[in-house]
Amino acid sequence: MSRVILGRSVAVSLVVATLAGTATAGPPTLAERFPAGEKKEFGGMVDGRLGFGMLDEDFFVSINVGTVLTWWKLGVGIQVPLRFRAVDNAPEQGTVLREEDWDEASDWTRVLRFVSWGTPDEWLYARLGVLEGTTLGHGSIVDRYMNVIDADHYQTGLQFKLDLDLAGGELFLDNLIDPEIFGMRGFFRPFQMWDAAPELSKTLELGITMVVDGVAPLEYTRQSTLGTCAGGVQCPLRQVTEDGDVITSASQAFLFGFDLSWTWRPIDWFALRPYYDFGLLGQTGGTGNHLGVSATFDVKGAVTIGTRVEYRAISEDYAPSYVNSWYEVERVDFAENPAPKGIDFDRVTKLDYFKRKDELGEEDTVHGWHASLDVTILDTVTVWALLEDVQGPDNANLTIGLSLPYIAGVRAQVYYAKRNFDEPAEAFDLDRGLLVADARYKFWGPMFVYAAYSREWKVNKDATSEDFGQYETLNDWDLGVGAEFTF
Fold first, then answer.
1. Sequence-separated (6 or more) residues with CB below 8 Å from residue 424
2. What is the pLDDT of residues 323-332, one digit of tens each?
3. Residue in 120, 276, 304, 122 with CA at minimum distance from that of residue 204
4. Is the pLDDT of residue 75 over 60?
5. What burial class does residue 90 get, using C-beta atoms within 10 Å of its C-beta: 0-12 exposed, 13-18 middle, 19+ buried?
6. Where are the domains of the chain?
7. What distance in Å separates the CA atoms of residue 399 and residue 428, rounded to the nearest whole number?
8. In sequence order, what E strands does 33-166 have?
9. CA gap 382, 93 in Å, rounded
10. What's the CA angle centered on 448, arms 447 and 449, to 5 degrees?
11. Which are the contacts of 431, defined by CB distance < 8 A and separation ≥ 6?
12. What is this structure's pTM?
């Protein structure tokens, strides 16, 4: 199954929907897309860090040397992150180099941090590397997906976008070495075909989305002996490999979507985009209707504000944003069993949860909403927040973030997310939460000190625990010194 580390080398990224610009009479020519006079400059950065920190129960000395090279629209990042065990607390591992960082083929792809072409807001964009928040369309099916949240596994994914004005598409793949999750969206702007309606040429857009989890975990493989499951119930425990993989039977999860949007831009600095999305979870027949509007206020050089409000009407055997930031964990360990049967007395996988909802005849329509806001000031400081909820227990989700580039020698990034909570007091409970915080201060020339903290996920392999075989969160922090050189 696919898995990755959410580490300090991962830059926190904000996924913001880009609204269509001023209408044109036709798509740009090849010469317009690649201007002959455009500069093709070479540059780059080299940095190194030495730190001391803690991951789970052990203390580590960390060394990370890397470089980022850029030429025109091409970017390449290379790194060698090593963690040496300084204090080996119980349960003892008996090794100095942290083996979990290098014991799978996909782990070795971490050396090639990324290869990219262009930026997400350009007509052509491609990236190999960690997926830091992939969204398709308006996020109704795939919203801020990360393949980077398991502390014992790493994977390199693919992201691609092409926009030729009349039509285009976007896609992602979770893991180049062991691919499991694939998603794509194609879109079409029909009025681009007629010069008679230039005001509509880039404003009306039709899209179709398809996402496949080809080996979606379904039911847990159980041990032959009884253990203590959640709630103190005696039941056969899940089987877990030495590498920390929960063994399950596999099925396929298919999701399909259709979307329609229209952009109204009465003035250069304001755009309004109403939209409608329809989603379908193939294994249950569950459906979702998403009706929303997004708006952008862009005062050049001063402030950019983006906001989105959405109403949702869904069946109980369907989930909005099925593939989200938590999906790498949720697909294996999702929620309490809604319909106990056989020996399954504890939590179930995501696909199994909604299949059981379907078997229970959970076809009533429930209502929900989504609201988000992001603000960028002086093209430097960015803050954002997202809150959403659906009728029923434990359906609220919260995401907040801050990105601060170097100002007076200080740079900071924070990303926090919490899913499936009910009461407001639970919103900032770090248990089963996702948190990344990183700050550095340049104190002399290229030299800097840094502090990093992240809340990561790992399968519990303690057979004496009632949470054995379940994902749990753990602390990962690091303090140190480094140097950064640009050229």
1. none
2. 998 899 999 9
3. 276
4. yes
5. exposed
6. 39-368+437-486
7. 10
8. 42-55, 58-71, 74-87, 112-117, 124-129, 132-134, 145-146, 157-163
9. 41
10. 140
11. 473
12. 0.85
